[in-house]
Structure formats: structure tokens, C-alpha cells
TrEMBL record, chain A:
GO terms for cellular component: plasma membrane. It comes from the Bacteria. Belongs to the succinate dehydrogenase/fumarate reductase iron-sulfur protein family. One of its GO terms (biological process) is respiratory electron transport chain. The lineage of its organism: Bacteria, Bacillati, Actinomycetota, Actinomycetes, Pseudonocardiales. This is succinate dehydrogenase. One of its GO terms (molecular function) is metal ion binding. SUPFAM superfamilies: 2Fe-2S ferredoxin-like, alpha-helical ferredoxin. Pfam families: Fer2_3 (PF13085), Fer4_8 (PF13183). It comes from Prauserella muralis.
Automatic annotation (TrEMBL), chain B:
One of its GO terms (molecular function) is electron transfer activity. This is Succinate dehydrogenase, cytochrome b556 subunit. Belongs to the cytochrome b560 family. Residues 1-14 have a biased composition (Low complexity). Residues 1-21 are annotated as: Disordered. The chain crosses the membrane at residues 37-58, 78-95, 116-136.
Length: 258, 148
């Protein structure tokens, strides 16, 4: 099937429950076996204000075009599979409600959905996450401890735990990294997510690998490429203060204090 | 020590056909992103001014007359408008520069980046309104005003 951009899709099969309104979902589609370039396709679908964008995508996939491809796993904002660019900003499709996207009264609502930027698009809305995880692995995101294993648990005070509490929340959805203009321009930058996960261990009082990680992030492709645009902080579905964490790593490097 | 070697080579060699690093769609970023875009633009504009400024000032070493002639061409309404633009660009760049320094070195800078952005835009407007008036007053009265 060769789909032209302005072909009207038959969306009449999608059940329209009471109280639903018709919204236009504009999806940036790409099939590597057919297309040279991604192209937009529009679907007029019924939507409840309480629907999430993910519901609309599933209705399109189940009732209109089964080839629509996207990732999702838990669908409850925990697994971090369905990060996509919704109305121009990175969000989890399972956390964005239609009611927050509705246009002013009397106007037709258009919801644009595109894959996240900066990572290779594999098909439709899912991207190759490997470069992202590669940067993640490069910062050694695990506890490093030398010497003999302690006979009891490693004690940590609440105040010490508090220092990296924010960065433990990361679900590796790549919304932050793919919102970063520096990362779009040059994929060799570690990106916010890798730095967040380095921060989680650098400021952990039980960890002894801080110096190694700081050395890695002091690299030309490390924290110094951050331009504090705050796109990552805005994009994070877990509300992590990403830019703040990056700034803390920068200051730890500048003042040699962890 | 348990260091996992980077699997960059393996990942690069795997079969990932048809994939392209997508760019092109408009990203409606945080105000912080737009402040950074403006910072770049005003920075480049200021650089171009400095470039011209160094050239025309260096001309005085060549010949004071030539210098006078060049400076004389600056006395036009268009250059006057450019001057207003220059002051606006330098002022924004300076104010946002202070904001960026605070974001970098003040522990609460990241938290207050947006209020700081609104504040510098406020200061910019407050300075630019009378500034533009006094800079353009003479040109406007000469162009449109009858008597002086």
C-alpha cells in the first residue's frame, strides 16, 4: 500500500463513546522499506478528554492501519518506552491527556506526533536507542566499591541519600537526551540522561568511583557541552531537575568537591 | 575493577538499514532554549559590529581624512536604527550573560532560570524604551519635524 500524505483515512471503525470529540492526529510516518523520507499523515479520530495520546495511537493501529509502529510497554509512565515528540515537545504518550491538548472552543484540535529527534528513526514512531544506551553505559552507572566487602549493609544517612534522590527517578526514556539541541547537532555528546545517571552515583556516599566518572564527563563530549537550554528539564516525564544535576556535576569538576 | 568495555563498534556494525537521525520538525522548547538562541544571535551580531568597528577605527592610522569620511557616512537614519539594534543586542547579551553565569555558579540558579529570564527581559524593555527614544529623537525630528 502506498499511502499519499493527504489520502483520507477511513476512521469510521473506531468506536466513538459518548462525550468524545473528533481530533486530528498528525503522525510523522516512515517505513524504511518504502519511504526515502518521513512524511506526515493525518487521522481524524474520536477522542475523550480523558484519553491519553497513547489510546489514540492504539485506535489508529487497531482500526485504521495496523502497520503504525511505536513502542510501549507498561503504558503507565513507568517503563519509559513511549517517549515521542507530541505537539513539538518530548512527552510520554501514556502520560499526555487529550484534554490538555484540546484547542479553544469551536476550533479543530490537531495533535502532532513525531519520533524523538537525534536518534535514528527505525520506523514510524520508534527510534534506535542504541546510541543512547551506549552513552549511558559509558558513564559506569553502577555502584563501584573497592576493598573488602563489608559484613553488614553499607550505611547511609538520610542527608547523604537526599543528595542524589532526584536522579534516582530516571526511567531511561530518552525524552531529555532527544530534546537537547546539542545532542541533535552532534550525537557524540553524552546527553542529559547519561549525566543524570552518572550524577546518581557520583553523589552517592557509598560509591568510590566518582573520580572515574568525573574524568569521563570532563571529556570534550562530556558535561561542558551543556548549554543550559533547560529543554531536558522541561521534557523529563519524572520531573527530574536534569539541568540542575548537570550543573552540579560541572561544579564538582570545577571545585573538586563531591 | 569492573569496567564494561564500550560496545560502540558492535552497535555501529549492526544491521540498521533505513535509519536516519531525524531533524527538521520544529521543537517547541523551554524558554531557556530560546534565550540561548537569542544569546547566539545577539552574540554574532555584536561580533560583526566589532569587526566593522575595528576596521573603521584602524582607518585613522591610514589617514585621518579617510576616517572622517567613513564616519560621516554613519550619520544616516539607517545607521541610527542599526545603533538602536546594536544597543538592544549588546544589552540582551549582557543581561542574559549574567543569567547564564548565575545558572552556572549559583546553586539555585537552575531553579530560578525562568524568573531570571523574565526579569532580564523586563529590564531590557525598561531600558530600551527610553533608550530608543533618546537615540532616535534627533533623527526623527530632522526627518519629520519641521522646525528644530
Amino acid at each position: 500500500m502506498t499511502a499519499v500524505a493527504d489520502t483520507a483515512h477511513d476512521t469510521s471503525q473506531i468506536p466513538a463513546p459518548e462525550g468524545s470529540v473528533t481530533v486530528t492526529v498528525k503522525i510523522l510516518r516512515f517505513n524504511p522499506e518504502v519511504d526515502d523520507e518521513p512524511h506526515w499523515e493525518s487521522y481524524d479520530v474520536p477522542a475523550l478528554p480523558t484519553d491519553r495520546v497513547l489510546n489514540l495511537l492504539f485506535n489508529i493501529k487497531n482500526y485504521v492501519d495496523g502497520t503504525l509502529s511505536f513502542r510501549r510497554s507498561c503504558a503507565h509512565g513507568i517503563c519509559g518506552s513511549d517517549a515521542m515528540q507530541i505537539n513539538g515537545i518530548n512527552r510520554l504518550a501514556c502520560k499526555v491527556l487529550v484534554k490538555d491538548l484540546l484547542a479553544k472552543k469551536g476550533k479543530q484540535t490537531t495533535i502532532t506526533v513525531a519520533p524523538i529527534k537525534g536518534l535514528p528513526t527505525m520506523k514510524d514512531l520508534y527510534v534506535d536507542m542504541e546510541p543512547f544506551f551506549e552513552a549511558y553505559r559509558a558513564v559506569k552507572p553502577y555502584l563501584i566499591a573497592y576493598g573488602n566487602e563489608p559484613t553488614r549493609e553499607r550505611i547511609q544517612s538520610q542527608a547523604d541519600r537526599e543528595r542524589f534522590d532526584d536522579t534516582t527517578k530516571c526511567i531511561l526514556c530518552a525524552a531529555c537526551t532527544s530534546s537537547c539541541p546539542v545532542y541533535w547537532a552532534d550525537g557524540s555528546y553524552f546527553g542529559p540522561a547519561a549525566i543524570v545517571n552518572a550524577h546518581r552515583f557520583i553523589f552517592d556516599s557509598r560509591d568510590e568511583g566518582s573520580e572515574e566518572r568525573l574524568d569521563i564527563l570532563n571529556d570534550a563530549e562530556g558535561v561542558w557541552r551543556c548549554r543550559t537550554t533547560f529543554n531536558c528539564t522541561d521534557a523529563c516525564p519524572r520531573g527530574i531537575q536534569v539541568t540542575k544535576a548537570i550543573q552540579e556535576v560541572k561544579r564538582a569538576l570545577l571545585f573538586k568537591r563531591v | 575493577m569492573s569496567t564494561t568495555a564500550s560496545t560502540a563498534a558492535e552497535a555501529g556494525a549492526s544491521d540498521r538499514t533505513g535509519a536516519s537521525r531525524r531533524s527538521g520538525t520544529f521543537y517547541r522548547g523551554d524558554p531557556g532554549m530560546w534565550s540561548w538562541v537569542m544569546h547566539r544571535i545577539t552574540g554574532v551580531l555584536t561580533f560583526f559590529f566589532l569587526f566593522v568597528h575595528v576596521l573603521d577605527t584602524a582607518l585613522v592610522r591610514v589617514s585621518p581624512n579617510a576616517y572622517d569620511e567613513v564616519i560621516e557616512t554613519y550619520k544616516s537614519p539607517v545607521v541610527n536604527l542599526l545603533e538602536v539594534g546594536l544597543v538592544g543586542a549588546v544589552l540582551y547579551h549582557a543581561l542574559n550573560g549574567i543569567r547564564v553565569i548565575l545558572v552556572d555558579f549559583w546553586s539555585k540558579g537552575a531553579k530560578y532560570q525562568r524568573p531570571m529570564l523574565w526579569a532580564i527581559i523586563g529590564v531590557w524593555v525598561v531600558v530600551m524604551i527610553p533608550g530608543t527614544y533618546f537615540m532616535l529623537e534627533r533623527t526623527v525630528s530632522e526627518l519629520f519635524g519641521g522646525g528644530h
